[in-house]
Design brief:
The protein is α/β, with parallel strands linked by helices. The protein folds into two domains: 29-217, 3-Layer(aba) Sandwich (Rossmann fold), CATH 3.40.50; 226-377, Jelly Rolls (Sandwich), CATH 2.60.120.380. Helices cover 29% and strands 26% of the residues. It has ten helices and 16 strands. Strands 3-2-1-4-5-6 form a six-stranded mixed beta sheet, with helices on both faces. A six-stranded mixed beta sheet has the order 7-8-16-10-14-13. The protein is extended and about 85 Å long. It starts with a helix and ends with a helix.
């Protein structure tokens, strides 16, 4: 009874990513979507047709696939040879169901393809997502095409946003086989909406290498599914988070608050990534701050590039020292199983973005946010930024500069004196 009473008074325990997630048990799932429209007959890649280069790359990738990979193949524009656009824009089929790799069957299915019809990219993406089904791990679609959609609606960019808005762990990577600006913009939009990547393949070697890399990435999935959480508009009453990975959505120029309990001997480490899944204006940024419950800022993390153009990230570290200001401690701090409420500091994390939509851009749903929280043993930190051993190098450079100046001056005076005598 006493334990139950203490738990009730202390409040709910922090939400944990492990509360709703299960370890990954399913194998990687990949769906290749190949454009077989009439334009794939063009012979502008190493003097070969685009379709033959794609078939060769696909064969090499299939031979190198890990046995545990589940692979499916969907094509578009592969069967209808007529001129009826309405019928041609329904031309997409799954020629190999998603499942354990049958290498001979997969290569034979692709080798017999001949460029034929229209380019219903949007419809093919929507059907490919259905082919992969749902699951606990991220699933990948790799789209290989040489042209923009000729059948919209549905617009492929909008389809990608719809898939992202469903909260499914689906990533679409795009490979462009034609040096066309419209195609590039469309494929960039599809990839950005789902957190994928876009690559222009200008040779058979480029296509094969990139395709292998993308298929390999299917194995880099979460050990657990990120837990869904809804941040608050103020710190008070915000969700209390335990170490884990969380997913949320944030609208343009919004601030979302979360809380994390930290003991005096611990260090908080947090990072956030916001995906630009729709067109935004050029000036943007992401800010992650840690504050005390009374609003005082403890530390902030500056946004940084992630190597991708569709994601902006920020991170921070903060240690709760034993001599910290007692005002940082809150009466509503919730104890962890190994600490009492009196010894815990509740740190408020606030995620802010400085994004603004372009004209005509949908504001809802919010942009995908991934928040990672960890609490570890506190590590020693320096009193402030300094040069450390760099002082020695600075001193050597100063002395070298003085000596160089002195020698240069002496040589100059000698040369001037000699020139005058002549």
């Amino acid at each position: 009874m006493g334990l139950l009473t203490a738990t009730t008074l202390a409040g709910a325990l922090p939400a944990s990513a492990d509360d709703t997630a299960e370890p990954v048990t399913e194998p990687p799932r990949v769906q290749l979507v190949l454009d077989v429209s009439g334009s794939m007959r063009a012979t502008d890649i190493d003097g070969r047709s685009r379709i033959s280069v794609a078939q060769q790359a696909f064969g090499e990738v299939v031979d190198a696939l890990p046995d545990e990979t589940q692979l499916g193949i969907r094509v578009l524009g592969a069967t209808y040879r007529g001129e009826d656009k309405k019928q041609g824009c329904l031309d997409t089929q799954q020629i190999v169901p998603v499942g354990p790799v049958n290498r001979e069957r997969a290569k034979a299915a692709v080798a017999t393809l001949r460029p034929t019809g229209f380019t219903p990219v949007g419809l093919a993406l929507r059907e490919a997502a259905k082919d992969l089904g749902r699951g606990t791990t991220a699933r990948r679609i790799v789209l290989i095409t040489d042209g923009e959609d000729t059948c919209a609606p549905p617009d492929p960019c909008q389809v990608a946003r719809e898939l992202a808005a469903q909260g499914t762990t689906l990533v679409v990577d795009t490979l462009g086989l034609a040096p066309d600006e419209k195609v590039r913009r469309q494929l960039l939009c599809i990839a950005a909406a789902t957190g994928g990547t876009y690559t222009a393949a200008t040779s058979a070697e480029d296509l094969t290498g990139r395709l292998k890399q993308l298929v390999d990435r299917a194995r880099d999935t979460y050990a657990t599914t990120p837990a869904k959480v809804a941040g608050a508009d103020v710190c008070q009453g915000a969700p209390l988070l335990a170490p884990g990975v969380y997913t949320d959505r944030e609208t343009f120029s919004e601030h979302r608050w979360y809380r994390v309990p930290v003991r005096p001997d611990q260090e908080l480490r947090a990072s956030v990534s916001v995906a630009m899944d729709r067109p935004v204006n050029p000036d943007y940024g992401v800010l992650l701050r840690a504050t005390a419950s009374d609003g005082r800022e403890l530390v902030r993390g500056v946004d940084a590039g992630s190597g991708r153009t569709d994601v902006v990230s920020a991170g921070l570290r903060w240690s709760a020292g034993a001599d910290d200001d007692e005002q940082a401690r809150t009466e509503d701090a919730t104890p962890t199983p190994t600490a009492s409420a009196a010894a815990v500091t509740t740190v408020c994390l606030v995620v802010s973005n400085m994004f603004s939509p372009r004209a005509g851009t949908e504001k809802e749903p919010g942009m995908p946010v991934e928040l990672t929280v960890d609490v570890v043993a506190a590590s020693p930190t320096p009193d402030g930024p300094d040069l450390g051993r760099g002082w020695v190098l600075l001193l050597l450079l100063t002395l070298a500069g003085l000596l160089t100046g002195l020698v240069t001056g002496l040589l100059t005076r000698w040369w001037v004196a000699t020139w005058r005598e002549k």
